[in-house]
């Protein structure tokens, strides 16, 4: 080789020395790895605590070199198919010249780390795989501030997911609606405890609705717990007309009303009264029913049904207007009126269908508590009264106009006939020239034209 001293051959031979060249080639061969062209392959492993993890060390282009598996502490787990480590959780799954596959049962957090695959070539080849242990949350619980809440209150709920790895994500649902909570994470050693707080303002529509705490974690699916809300609320009152059925309330006919109330707890006190006046003596009240056997005009007014429970009191009103027996026009709306007890209760119902008589004073507006679940709307007899009055007004006006027209026509006829009889021009010559006559015969003879002109006398009547 150039640049290197060459040993001399025997004298006179002229041939270069072969021994140094042979030694150089052997030295070059000694530094080439015997495992050249071999590749180790493995994959990372993620396993849930308590499950089985499988570690695989594979060789491409194997030349029967020895495969070895070591733990994170560099202790040999398997050398070929022999297990030096006295841990029975490691079991040989497969062994060949190209693969060493080992299973680890009942994995715990302490088993997490790097595991090394080695191939005994010269020099040795090495690659590592990482085992990640997932720990699902334990003891998922919901704590609620109050077991029983009153409508309108804001209550606090807390959901806790203990000892998970990694930290879990908590989601809240009320029925099918997702809500937003506030989470805090605490770390204890290698574990995480997550607590999520939810502030919720409850209404009567939330009674019996489940509040769900749902966990998002790679180690578990569909892990959740729930609590059912218990909400107390004031009565919801409704007045229904049993007789007449959506008809006119006429004089002499009966009227029967029924009051129903629902609340939590169920209302125990229910009573009828007449707003701004005393209840008529002939009105019969029996529990939730009110009966007037013979209606008359003095019964007109607003009749109120009140119901109460431990939470509060609510009421519903019926506005009565008694029509004449001759009334036939059906009212568009009849008899009932309901409004919320306060502006806050507008959140619990829709007032788009509530009817209020236009003549009713503001301070006398009837009130009742509403809810999203149901709202009883009842007709108002004032609308029927207005329709009947309009019909009567039209009839009266028409009659008066007809009478006036007829009277005017009669008057014109009479005046015409009167003037016709007393108006005209008369032409006569009977008395002409008779003023100087001594007697009637002479007057006739002396009249202009005499008897000969009597046929020419004419009379014009206009």
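Q: What amino acid sequence fits the structure above?
A:
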């Amino acid at each position: 080789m150039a640049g290197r001293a060459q040993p001399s051959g025997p004298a006179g031979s002229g041939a270069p020395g072969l021994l140094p060249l042979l030694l150089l080639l052997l030295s070059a061969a000694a530094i080439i790895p015997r495992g050249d062209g071999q590749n180790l392959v493995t994959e990372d492993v993620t396993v849930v605590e308590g499950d089985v993890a499988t570690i695989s060390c594979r060789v491409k282009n194997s030349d029967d070199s020895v495969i070895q598996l070591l733990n994170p502490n560099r202790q040999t787990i398997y050398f070929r198919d022999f297990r030096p480590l006295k841990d029975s959780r490691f079991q040989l799954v497969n062994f060949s010249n190209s693969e060493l596959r080992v299973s680890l049962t009942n994995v715990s957090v302490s088993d997490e780390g790097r595991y090394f695959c080695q191939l005994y070539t010269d020099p040795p080849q090495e690659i590592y795989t990482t085992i990640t242990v997932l720990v699902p949350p334990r003891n998922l619980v919901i704590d609620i501030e109050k077991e029983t809440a009153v409508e309108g209150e804001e209550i606090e709920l807390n959901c806790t997911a203990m000892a998970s790895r990694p930290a879990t994500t908590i989601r809240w649902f009320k029925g099918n609606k997702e809500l937003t909570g506030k989470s805090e994470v605490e770390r204890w050693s290698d574990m995480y405890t997550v607590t999520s707080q939810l502030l919720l303002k409850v209404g009567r529509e939330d009674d019996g609705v489940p509040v769900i705490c749902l966990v998002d974690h790679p180690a578990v699916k569909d892990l959740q717990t729930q609590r059912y809300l218990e909400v107390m609320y004031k009565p919801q009152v409704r007045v229904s007309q049993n007789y007449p059925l959506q008809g006119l309330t006429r004089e002499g006919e009966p009227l029967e009303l029924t009051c129903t109330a629902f609340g939590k707890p169920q209302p125990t006190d229910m009573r009828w009264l007449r707003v701004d006046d005393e209840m008529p003596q002939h009105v019969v009240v029996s529990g939730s029913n009110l009966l007037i056997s013979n209606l008359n005009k003095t019964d007109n007014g607003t009749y109120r049904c009140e119901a109460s429970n431990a939470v509060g009191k609510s009421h519903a009103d019926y506005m009565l207007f008694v029509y004449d027996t001759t009334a036939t026009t059906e009212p568009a709306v009849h008899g009932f009126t309901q409004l919320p007890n306060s502006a806050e209760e507008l959140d619990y119902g829709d007032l788009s269908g509530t009817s209020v008589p236009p003549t009713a004073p503001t301070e006398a507006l009837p009130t009742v508590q509403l809810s999203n679940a149901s709202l009883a709307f009842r007709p108002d007899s004032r609308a029927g009264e207005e329709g009947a009055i309009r019909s009567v007004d039209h009839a009266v006006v028409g009659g008066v106009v007809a009478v006036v027209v007829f009277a005017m026509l009669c008057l014109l006829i009479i005046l015409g006939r009167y003037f016709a009889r007393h108006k005209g021009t008369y032409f006569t010559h009977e008395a002409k020239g008779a003023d100087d006559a001594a007697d009637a015969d002479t007057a006739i003879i002396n009249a202009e034209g005499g008897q000969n002109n009597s046929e020419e006398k004419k009379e014009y009547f206009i």
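Q: And what stands out in the fold?
A: The radius of gyration is 58 Å.
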